[in-house]
Description:
This protein is α/β, with parallel strands linked by helices. The protein folds into 2 domains: about 10-125 and about 140-160, Flavodoxin domain (Rossmann fold, 3-Layer(aba) Sandwich), CATH 3.40.50.360; about 175-290, Alpha-Beta Plaits (2-Layer Sandwich). The chain has 10 helices and 12 strands. Helix 3 links the parallel strand 4 (about 85-90) and strand 5. Helix 1 (about 20-35) crosses helix 5. The longest helix has 19 residues, at about 145-160. The model has no long low-confidence stretch (mean pLDDT about 95). The structure holds flavin mononucleotide and iron/sulfur cluster (SF4) (2 copies).
Amino acid sequence: MVNKFMVKCLIVYFSVGGTTKKVANKVVAGLESVGYDVDLHDLTGGVPPSIENYDLLGIGTPAYFVSLPFNVADYLKTIPKLNIPFFSFILYGFVIGEGGNRLRKKLTKKGGRDVGYLKTRGREDFYGFVKSGYVLFPNSPNAEDLERAENFGKNIKSNIENENYISEEFDERPPFMFRFQRAINAKWITHSMLYKMIKVNKSKCTKCGICVNICPTHNIVMDDSGFPKIGKDCLGCYYCERDCPEEAITSILDTKMAKPILKYNENLIPKVVGDNFERVQLINGKVEKI
Ligand SMILES: Cc1cc2nc3c(=O)[nH]c(=O)nc-3n(C[C@H](O)[C@H](O)[C@H](O)COP(=O)(O)O)c2cc1C
Ligand code: SF4
Ligand code: SF4
């Protein structure tokens, strides 16, 4: 039940590149401007507080492989019956896919009322694109996107109060090739096979710890000899590989198998994003504009 006097809202978000976090902060500003009390929880920082003491739940996430990152999907599973309204926002840089749909359907099934859905562009610097020499939507979310996010937060109150409010349409099913890419990056495949293909070349590794710090699931630890060791709780984000200054990490993305898929995505860039990209190269683990 929404408290008449002070609505308490919990927003749980996941963000590695920082774009979802930026949007989350603006949504918070919008909610606070209409008198809501908001707690913002970063999913990488531990288990979110129980939703029992809240009147409203918000989820913020990037699109990963035309779906949700595994950790966000896992968090949704832990939510018990939801007798409160919820809203969601999703950042995406290429083809959004069905992550937003999944999230909204899941929470609606648990009894929640969908009072707002925002999708907005985020800087797409996934290693697969960077490897091909591209970053998509390099300056997103821009000032206009952030203003829209703040207004989205402001409007949640009136959406809740309007009994006839109907949330946004569901997103389109992505084309077959993207569903195929999602299938080969499924959680069970990542956790049984793909994580094992992330290898550290000890002759290149300087034990700097950058990969340990970037890993959003804390899945990389230093072994007894100070070299990074990859666990199975992997999201397949490949930030560890991208950010290694010594190019000491390799993964499935470096195999012959991955080449046609990376090329397929690269060829689609102009069709999907127009000229909203910049050419880049990786220098010592930093994505540099050419
Ligand atoms: C592993 C991975 C998979 C991604 N998959 C998709 C995708 O399927 N569709 C899409 O539009 N964007 C995809 N993206 C782009 C992110 O959704 C986008 O860059 C987002 O802004 C990242 O959010 P963050 O900055 O909060 O981490 C992917 C990014 C990563 C790292
Ligand atoms: S980022 Fe690269 S060099 Fe640094 S510890 Fe990890 S693998 Fe080694
Ligand atoms: S790809 Fe690397 S950084 Fe990403 S979750 Fe897996 S081990 Fe961590």
